[in-house]
Structure formats: structure tokens, C-alpha cells
């Protein structure tokens, strides 16, 4: 009976540890996905500001040449 309890405890621990580990792993993956998206937004923001600056320079140059 002691042997059976040890086996059932081992199986229970394996299942239980997996069940606890899985949400942490998903949370970690979600964290990195969000971080990656935020980094992409930061890059898009920088590119958009550069485009606006270039457009403003073209507008100013056109104004000065008219």
C-alpha cells in the first residue's frame, strides 16, 4: 500500500507540477509577445516622426523656393 501511495503521489506531482508550470510558461510567452509588440510600436513611432520631419523639411524648402 505504501508503494501504491508513492506511485500515485509521483503521478499526482507530475500532473500537478505540469498544471502549475503551464500557466507560468504561457504568461512568459504573453509577456514577450507584448514586449515585442511594444518594441515594434516604438520603432514605428520613430519612423513616423522621421517621415514627418522630412515632410516638414520639404515643405519649408518649397516655401523658401517659391
Class by SSE composition: mainly alpha
So what's the oligomer here?
A: single chain
How is the biggest beta sheet arranged? none
Overall shape: rod-shaped
Termini separation:
97 Å
As a whole number of angstroms, the C-alpha radius of gyration is 29 Å
Low-confidence region ranges: none
Tally the helices: what do you get?
1
Order of helices and strands: H
Beta-strand portion reads under 5%
Helix content: over 70%
Question: How many beta-strand segments?
Answer: 0
The overall pLDDT average reads 76
What are the SSEs and their pairings?
Layout: H1 2-65
Question: What this model shows, in words?
Answer:
- This protein is mainly α and 66 residues long.
- It contains one helix and no strands.
- The chain has one helix at residues 2-65.
- The longest helix is centred in the middle third of the chain and has 64 residues, at 2-65.
- 0% of the residues are buried.
- The model has no long low-confidence stretch (mean pLDDT 76).
Give a quick set of tags describing it.
mainly alpha; 66 residues
Brief write-up:
The chain is an all-alpha fold and 66 residues long. The protein has one helix and no strands.
